[in-house]
Structures are given as structure tokens and as C-alpha cells.
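Lab notebook page, bench 4
Experiment: in silico fold of construct C2
Operator: M.H.
Input chain length: 174 residues
Purpose: comparison with the prior construct
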Amino acid sequence: MAREPVQAASRYVNALDGLVARPARPEDVEEISLLSAPFVDDGLLIARPLVELAEKMHEFVVARQEGRLVGCMGMAPTDTPTDKSLVVYNLCIAPDWQGRGIGRHLVGVAVNIGRREGYQSLLALTRYGGEWFRKLGFSNVPVSEARDEWRTLFRPDRRSSLYRLILTSEQSRD
């Protein structure tokens, strides 16, 4: 891969009613932590210490509205010899900004990056319920059908579901 996925995000920044999505910067780490905290408290996101978030800042895209952080999303490649998927994680939108298309916009950034960088699919694990991902074209992947590379994403104690959006014409999971 020529560049980190999020570095490519600057090519896909567009506005949605004044919304600006851009690669995260080191100064965003505390705001990402604060935005994620209520979702961590509700068991919907995995707790990540500030140090870990800072180390993964290159994987994040943030959404800002009028200077306020209103959404974020991490992206990390699986990039194994048998699978080239982009994993979407820590996707969260400020509660008072939900329902305005910000999450859809961030996933759209991931789709654009994934296609441009030659990824086969986007993967998302969620405890929230998959209906939202299904509306975006993702399909549920039962654990029994998950590739070995994807099984490492599951945390049995979290009871998450895996969703996949195919980005290429590849139709098989083998």
C-alpha cells in the first residue's frame, strides 16, 4: 500500500452542511477520547487510553462542525496475503448530532479510500445492532463464515457482530 489509508482522506474531504471531515491530528486525541467516552460507558466502544489513541491518530478521520468535533472513525487494514480489507472502528457521533448523516458521511470516506487503495472490503464490528450498517449496504458475516483473519477481530466477551461491505467485484469469501 502506497500510503496509510487516512492520509488519503484529504482527497475525499467534502462538506455536508458545513461539516468538514479530515484526517485526525495530534491535537484531536483528547476530543476523540471525550467523544468516545459515553459510548465506552454504554459498552458500545472499547476503552482506549489516551496513549493508545495518540499512537493510532494516523488511523482516524474526524468530522467537525463549526469547530466542534462531532464525529470520528478509525480505519486499519487487515492486509494479509489472503485478505485486503479495511476495518472501520471507533465510529461514533456526538449524541446531539446523530441522525444528520455524519456517520454515513464518514463511512463514505472509508468506502472512497478503500476503493482508491484497492481494498476488497470494509469490515465493521458492532454491538449496536447491524440495521444501520445494512442500510449502508453491509451484510452480516456469521462467525462460522468469517475468514481466519477476521476471527482475530472478534472479542468473545463483547458479543459483537461482524458486517462486511464488498468494494470490488469479488463475490466469494474464499
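Observations: The two ends are 22 Å apart (CA to CA). The mean pLDDT is 83.
Next step: discuss at group meeting.
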